[in-house]
């Protein structure tokens, strides 16, 4: 994990040096600056032109409960102090606690001379074998264990561009006992017989001075030793990209990654809709009317097993009265309608179990598959640059995606983010523009019946709101923005056992949390209905709801109910006979409107009351503006 940035500069003419807990040293164009950015969040200039990296960059990395000073030395081909870059690197080595030598795995023989020089300086050295993915794709196989034996220092394969191996590199550098080779005193430094390419460390010098008394071994001996190592550890094979490798590359490619992400997300929501609709009614289809139906699902089950019992109970209660309205609800055309009757034992059980639970199951199934196959970390890497524009790094996509399941664990997952600013922005965006799976189930069910484009429009509006509010918060809030540090696993086939265990935990958690709240909400709403409380509230809010948002004044009841459970509020849109415009507006406003009670409690716990009040103020301003925009812009 990373912490704040520090200064950026170059060594002064007086020969001052900067002490580094970790010093990155390597030749130009090995991905050293990318690795530095991955560790510290400092954006450096990468260029092939000489002189652009002669200065050094300093940053701070937090790992565990400690902060470490990380310095990016200028790229240099050797420690022979013949140019300014080498002189700067030598001074930095003097003051460094540990050296990470970044090496291009595709050109091992070209980079090992510098590695041998660094090992001989009497400092702990870890070799980061960077661009390991490219080496694999080129058919270059490097025996890491044997290379470690020959060099006498740890070697860790990395891909700085995606973060692969970076966590292991840091763990090795910080927690592994690294042997120190080479001599530090001047007398031993002159004996170079056992240290090919050993360049004795010089005292600090003024920039531009000639190095006096500097000795080194002939290049022939250096290259002979490098050749022996490369011949022993490197094997070249004819290699074609496997399908898995092609997918891995495409998912993080700057251009293909976007298309890949769109395809994955489109496929994911199609699968969620298809499985959800099948479990609800036995219908098979993605949007609109199902392609065909089979006698299966929660609706037929409720009709066959629960409706006769409720009909008998309704008859025994006389078909009317307070207790009937409380338990059974209203009879629609003389019969019980599980979607509209709104009784404690009818709608109160059917909505969470018959309508929401199937979509919860399908959503968590797809999310778990994306997690276990290894795509989510790649999505985080691909989105990292775009997320920076709203004040976050790519790993914030993980709490956001969890928020699509339920806002509560999504907001709790913001703890993985490095600072208060990121946690505030992410939690605010989740509570405003990320609908939970239960609400999505109702949105997809209601809007999907009118066409896929209606569902896409709701999500598109919420996505635009998410971006706009994110950009505003990035500008309005202060704080540093660290770089993404995440381990990228290979693509793998999910374990059925682990998948089933995860599904059981998540679906069971939804039932334990949601079912009591839904029943309590219906109980409260029915009592308030009997007391005509909602009638007065609807009259008071008619100005905003009807005039500004273009909704019937009865829509204020679903919006208020959404404070208890969002999906219950969406379910109450069904009997209002809304136009497509009103349905889109209602779904967006309900998604953005005041968070449900559970989410509000978690916001208070995670952010504190001050930031929760700020988030609530932003939320109310955003929902008023968005609802008005939909009403007046819609043709």
Q: What report would you give on this structure?
A:
This protein is an alpha/beta fold and 635 residues long. The chain folds into 2 domains: 2-203 and 210-240, Rossmann fold; 249-633, no CATH class. Helices cover 56% and strands 9% of the residues. The strands form 4 sheets. The protein has a 7-stranded mixed beta sheet with strand order 1-3-4-2-5-6-8, with helices on both faces. It has a two-stranded antiparallel ribbon with strand order 7-9. Strands 10-11 form a two-stranded antiparallel ribbon. Helix 9 crosses helix 10 (256-281), helix 17 packs antiparallel against helix 19 and helix 25 runs antiparallel to helix 26 (597-633).
Largest sheet: 7 strands, mixed
Taking strands numbered 1, 2, ... along the chain, how are they ordered across the largest sheet?
Answer: 1-3-4-2-5-6-8
Rg (C-alpha, Å) = 31 Å
Our count of helices gives 26
Assign an overall shape.
elongated
| Average residue-wise pLDDT | 77
Could you say which structural class the secondary elements and strand pairing correspond to? alpha/beta
